[in-house]
């Protein structure tokens, strides 16, 4: 994703404008904006820049909410009310005092360059405030977390008194804390969220996505300088022309969503039919026929690849279009199939335009209602999978025995009797044909709060190794206890699995705490203490975490503790631990592509070409394929479980040496099988039967 910001990046564009550009991109694509967290996700109706509001960087307006945004690329906690941190809190207080509306949220948007106290500890205490009416006071906080909470509340008290000349009440203090949302965004050049929004833009626009992204950043700079606002109509006016157009035969700016207004303007009064000739004099017939009679009944019926003309002659249909232009495109694309064939064209001479008949106009309105009812306008109307390929047809399904429908279909799914209204013309899909039919919107949604494991591996600069996957992962327990771990630096954390605080019964929590304490003592005796990394919430021996580039913190003791929603919200780290991940699908069989017994998963589908070139040099050639995605950890679990049942390996981001050995990438290995193998090895070394060990 290099040079993604273009010239704008090199002219000193700051983090605030990238946040605004992210919001503009969501508006253009019609996506819900959830980058500040799922609890305040909203469809954006308006953006206001450098406003007269107290929190003036950016205001995101939704149907039922206002998000007041302070965007700080780097920020640290400070006790000084006049510091940058204190100034941000001053704006939150001023907004609360001057315009206190239910549903408002105060967002402190930062980059990954902000301090851990901002990104983690402040996020935890503000999240807890939304769940605990007593604010953070009811949480079992570590010394550093208590310090962050105290400094934050003291600054809020200072600015509230400075603003109102009176002390803040406990109720108002808690309300302000609860409205603060901390959002760490990876929006730098090549960052995960910039890559994701570029991926979505690429699927929806005809212009190069990186150039459009640069234009959005530049627009954000201009709007901030001039203190202007931007609504959805203005976004469409400025950038709508770059949305993927359909062919000239279809009078609209965008292939999706397929709006009622678009459909109502399409031609529904006649059909252009290419059929195999039933006569000896020619091989094919092309004709145009009027669809409806004076009473509005259909003159011709289509079924099982055939058309019955006027209820009398039955022809085998090759293709069916709403315009002659559509038929001409087909003939040009398949010229070799017809060069030695005799094709007869029978054009009707109609006195009136059948598309303007009352029957055709009524049917157009009916088809518009069909299109408007689709929950996912990008889902193929035949197979249900996402449609994102150049040349994808927009069709009307009009066939006996099938429900009436209108929408996009894959080229491979289009049947001869589908009435083709137009086709998607998208340069991105021509240039990146391997990503056709990829679920871009689903990928962006899943990436927010996802790929936690791989983000940690990226930060540690580890290029390969084993990922121990638990096939018996339990996320169903609703026990009311958990295990709290005291750390060497005075903080507390909680034992988690896949980034989520692990819930268990009181008995199991006590047992788990005892097992942890026994293990801590053993590791300490061996001179390699068991540790925790605050940056990615990972656990392991000191030597292992240090070798991965982390800054390990020794674990001191474990104890059972009551589970609360506040603890869950404050200490759970992610939505998806593994997902989203992309994989190749055999275009012929529909199964995952297996090369040399291995299935490859990718953390960034736009890097596919790099991996394909490497695999080709290593002599590994996949079959013709499309690209699909695992968007949830539950899908990942099912995928890996099935692969291992079939004896297939799973590797994430693999690159291979010329001799076929794995140079980089992460091999997914069963935790249970590793434990079993270790028990077998230990039993063999001790000369005991495995069952006795």
Question: What keyword list fits this structure?
Answer:
693 residues; 22 helices; single chain; globular; 6-stranded mixed β-sheet
Please describe what this structure looks like.
The protein has 693 residues and is of the alpha+beta class. The chain has 22 helices and 28 strands. Helix 4 packs across helix 5 (143-164), helix 7 crosses helix 8 and helix 7 packs antiparallel against helix 15 (440-447). The chain is globular, with a radius of gyration of 30 Å. The protein starts with 5 loop residues before the first helix and ends in a 7-residue tail after the last helix. The relative contact order is 0.08.
Strand content: 15-25%
Strand order in the sheet with the most strands = 5-4-3-2-1-6
- What is the count of helical runs? 22
Largest sheet: 6 strands, mixed
Ends apart, CA distance between termini: 53 Å
The average pLDDT value, as a whole number, equals 83
Q: Helical proportion?
A: 25-40%
- How many runs of DSSP E, i.e. beta strands? 28
List the helices and strands and how they pair.
Elements: H1 6-10, H2 15-29, E1 46-49, E2 58-61, E3 66-72, H3 84-98, E4 105-111, H4 116-131, H5 143-164, H6 170-179, E5 180-185, H7 192-204, H8 209-226, E6 229-231, H9 232-239, H10 260-264, E7 270-276, E8 284-290, E9 301-303, E10 306-309, E11 313-321, H11 324-333, H12 335-338, E12 343-346, H13 358-372, E13 393-397, E14 405-408, E15 419-423, H14 427-431, H15 440-447, H16 452-460, E16 464-469, E17 481-487, E18 492-494, E19 496-497, E20 500-501, H17 506-525, E21 530-533, E22 538-541, H18 542-547, E23 553-562, H19 565-571, E24 581-586, E25 598-602, H20 608-617, E26 625-630, H21 633-645, E27 649-656, E28 662-670, H22 671-686
Parallel strand pairs: 3-4, 4-5, 8-12, 16-28, 25-27
Antiparallel strand pairs: 1-2, 1-6, 2-3, 7-8, 7-11, 9-10, 10-11, 13-14, 13-15, 17-18, 17-23, 19-20, 21-22, 21-23, 24-25, 24-26, 27-28
Helix pairs in contact: 2-7, 2-8, 3-5, 4-5, 4-6, 4-19, 7-8, 7-15
